[in-house]
Structures are given as C-alpha cells and as structure tokens.
Write a structure and sequence with these properties.
Low-confidence stretches: none
Number of strands: 10
Strand content: over 45%
Helix content: under 10%
Mean pLDDT: 97
Strand order of the largest sheet: 2-10-9-4-5-6
Largest sheet: 6 strands, mixed
Radius of gyration: 13 Å
Order of helices and strands: EEEEEEEEEE
Number of helices: 0
Length: 111
Amino acid sequence: DVQLQASGGGWVQPGGSLKLSCAASGFAFNRTYMRWVRQPPGQETEFVASMSSVGNAYYQDAVKGRFTISRDNAKNMLYLQMNSLKSEDTAVYYCATDSVRGQGALVTVSS
C-alpha cells in the first residue's frame, strides 16, 4: 500500500520558519513525481510545490522565494522548507502523488 506521512507541522509566528517532512513507502518513490498541497481552513485544497524524480521544482506563485521543496530518493523522503511564513500559509499540508494524498500536517501561522 502507498503510505505518505507528513510531519513537522506546528505553530509559528509570522516571519518564522518550519520544515515539513514526508515519509513515503509502498511505491517506487525515486521514480515518482511528488507534490505538496495544502488546505486552508474552510477552503479548497491548493497546489503548493512539486518536484520531479530528477529534482525539477515548481511552485505556486504565492510561495515562490519563500518555500523550497526537496527530496532524498535514498531515504524515500520529501521535504518542504517554509520561510517567511505568513498567516495565509495556515493550512493542513499534505504530500501527494498523482493519485494518493497522505496524512497531513497542520501549520498555524499567527501572532
């Protein structure tokens, strides 16, 4: 079974940083296009960032320059470094493949 488990969420003040991690198992992670998506409170799920199996990264305009996606294919891990966080970044963050979304990590940005 495909398993995706995000961790590293929490509360942070505006301007702060957090790093999310996603442990993947049950599929060929090193050949899989991976993405981070998020669901703000009361809103639809939205794309945040993605990375190809060879490391090409793409970002939603609102997070460009603040967030960095990365992966370690040897460890089956996906990461999202989030800097200069804003209140509008508050959401449950999920790592996902094309067809599976794992358990999320809640990120709360507030003063």
